[in-house]
Amino acid sequence: MDKRKKFGAFAGVFTPSILTILGVIMYMRLGWVVGQAGLIGTLLIVLLAHVVSVSTGLSISSIATDKQVKEGGIYYMLSRSLGLPMGGAIGLALFVATALGISLYIVGFTENFLGIEVIRSFLNLDTGLNSIRIVGTGVVIVLTLLGLISTSLVIRTQYIILGAIALSLISIFVGFLWEPASNPETVLMFPATDSLPMATVFAVFFPAVTGFTAGVAMSGDLKNARKDIPRGTLGSIITGLIVYISLVLVMAFFMPRSVLLNDNNFLMHSAWIGGLVVAGIWGATLSSALGGILGGPRIMQAIALDKILPKFLAKGQGHNREPRAALIVTFLIAEAGILIGDLNAIAELVSMFYLTSYGFINLAYVLESWASSDFRPSMRIPHWVGILGFVITFGIMFQMNPLAMIISLVLMIGIYFILKRRELQLDLGDVWQSVWSAMARSSLHHMDRKGLEERNWRPNIILFSGGSQNRPYLIEFGKAMVGKHGLLSNFDLIEKQNENEKALTKHDQADKESTVDTEIKGIFSRKQTTTNVYDTITNIVENYGFAGVEPNTVLMGWARHTKDPDKFVQLLNDLQNLDMNILMIDYDKRKGFGNYKTIDVWWRGGASNSHLAIQLVKFLWLSEEWKESSIRIMIINPINDQKEIIRKETTEILNNLRIKAEIKIINNEIEHKPLYDIIRVESINSDLIFLGLPSFQEGQAKNYIENINILCQNIGTVVLVGASSKI
């Protein structure tokens, strides 16, 4: 039984989120933003920043109402949606950003703390770097001890801080509305004449809205994460938006530009009670740091539970399974940042990590809602919300700092590939299988509607290898042809001893033990039982595939020693009637494929056969084995005077096909040499020979096979080509 103390939407999600949202930017930089951008510009900045937070908050909420959200918050969501490698990369980046964010908040607190003269005098410190390090180290130790003692204690401490922020806001609004310190003559509607670029001003403000995910990190400590995360997250975002817009309005109406631009502590002077503002600043910075101390270790603990990080980081202590080991690591990273003292150099990079995680949250929602059949959230939002959040997030990153964006993405891509190599997988899988299925479905629909274009033709081969171990050369040739573009389905036909023998199930037909390298894209293996090989081949060719990716080519070994020539020739006739490209390989076991250097295409048996052979050579050139080979177009000329005309026409055809080839025309008007003799002389040293498949002669099956056997005898490996009408 789980005896952990659980928290609701207000304590577990809303409170840590709103305390991070109403942070140091609100107190120390919002006035400067208004002074730079004016009322209209600042409202646009605030609204644009909240487009990111609202869209991401809605995406988080929708995902949370579909899945059981456990420890790790955002990391858990992303890893269960996008998979462990991508989720782990983003989770690690988010953890580091959260830990360094603790340093930023504490340094901000320390600067304000030491800015009070009474405190400096009492502690005998100054505002220098060493003093910031000393006070900051003391603060992070105290906050870490609070986290080690009890999450409940930290939660209760946050109530006090929330109260301090609320009182400070009351004091600020009372001071502006009832006791204004100044009355500017005009409202600050437009940017200052010498204002900084809006992207720079936006970059200063944006960290103010990055805190809405602080509560999501507490997912493992919530009573009902599916309800609490949407309520707490969206509640904190809306509350923060109302507070910021209200403050922007009163600052633009009641404060002069010079004060907003030059005095970061003007709220202390204009507020009803200045001490409440100091309490609010301290509360805001310390609460943000506490939010990181609560959330960061839980992200690391969740990552370790998935075996991405060392096992000891996954251990929890007590009834609440407090991640104390992960908290120590978080403390060390935060302390390293404090010892640096000036974190301006890494502040934008930290923001990039946050923004990247927000972008991928929106991407995860879009993919889940578009592709996953298992995605059934109780809170469903339109697809365009997630798309908008994803696009704007990366647009903002580019505007803020393109170099920092590139660095953060490169780091996360590097982590992704490291985790990918470890082949980490979830038992329940991820969304990518659904994404590929949805993409395939959409692609097939468009391919079927548009139809086949010659320039986009590629081989979609059905291979009957007779057992891949028996005829490995067929597998080798098929793989070389499909390469990076085509498809190959290798059928291993298993003859049944009798008709009553049980057929293979659909699951068993997927040949997982095939020697074909099915890791190569576009290559698939299938087993199938049969009592009649020829009929089964015809049935497979006739029925295999579906609209958009129908097979167009059959690849087999030439049946030089067939026991049933009539059935074999009938099979060839059936394949031709089905309008399939036919490739029959007569393999020379002595020469094999030679040195993979010279390919001869004999321009005979119909122009379509030659055209298909040349197309196939183009695909062979994309393979590793044949990429250095050259092609010769071999033409037997029965009329010697036509030689130059034939060369000119052939050259034009090759130019149209963008093929560089040697054209060799053999005059045969006088000698009338047999075809075999010519081929034997000209192609004896070639590594691969393409010949057009002769026409079938009914009732002459045995002679037909014998004639082709003679034609191909002792000249090397030959591919007999019979083209369909669509090539």
Structural key phrases:
727 residues
User: Which secondary-structure class do the elements indicate?
Assistant: alpha/beta
Span between termini: 68 Å
User: Strand order within the widest sheet?
Assistant: 3-2-1-4-5-10-9-6-7-8
Main beta sheet, described? 10 strands, mixed
Helix content: 55-70%
- Which term fits the overall shape? elongated
Which segments are poorly predicted (pLDDT under 50) over 5 or more consecutive residues? none
Mean pLDDT: 80
What is the CA-based Rg, rounded?
36 Å
- Structure summary, number of beta strands: 10
Q: If helices are DSSP runs of H or I spanning 4 or more residues, what is the number of helices?
A: 26
Strand content: 5-15%
Describe this structure in words.
- There is one protein chain.
- By secondary structure, the protein is an alpha/beta fold.
- It has a 10-stranded mixed sheet with strand order 3-2-1-4-5-10-9-6-7-8, with helices on both faces.
- Helices cover 58% and strands 9% of the residues.
- β1 (460-464), α19 (472-482) and β2 form a beta-alpha-beta unit.
- The chain contains 26 helices and 10 strands.
